[in-house]
Amino acid sequence: MLELITPPASEPVSVATLRAYLRIESADHDALLAELIAAARDTVEADCGLSLVETHWRAWLNLGSLTTVRIGEGLYDQVVVERGPVLAVTSVELGGVEVDADDWLTRGPHGKAVYAPAGLDLSAVRIDFRCGYAAPELIPARLIRAIKMLAAHWFENRQAYEQASLEEIRLGYNKLVSGFRRMVL
């Protein structure tokens, strides 16, 4: 189970950027555009299992068999937390006892896994971790485009959705996010 501890402090697409994308000159719709950007970001993040901007999460896991990997000189058990890219593990509790989070590793540009020192009992674990891209320019351009596409579509189609317009957006959107779905390492 995942719980959001700290939500994003900013959006990966600014209202001014979306306004320019839509060719809107006036600021009359800025509140609506901000709402649509947040909803589009949330949709992309949920579909891809990613946090585009930095957030803080808590995962409760009951782990059975794990994959053990060698990293450097040590052996580590891979723990998938279903949200990435993981920037840092901030705290860990095993069976209700706080342990040193500094011993846990992260790796990979879109990684949704953390690495625990091998041999720990991970049958009941709580992991707090920060995730998101370390800088806005590191967010993949395809995901930024997907956010703009969704927000623009919702802005231009505020009435009841027609099947044809949904199908057009679905094809383009799926192409943009397809490479980011279900990425683990």
From TrEMBL:
The family database entries (Pfam families) matched by this protein are listed as:
Phage_connect_1
Family annotation (InterPro entries)? Phage_CHP (IPR011738), Phage_gp6-like_head-tail (IPR021146), Phage_HK97_gp6-like (IPR006450)
**NCBIfam families tied to this protein:** phage_chp_gp8, put_DNA_pack
Tell me what this protein is called: PhiE125 gp8 family phage protein
Q: Which organism is it from?
A: Asticcacaulis biprosthecium C19
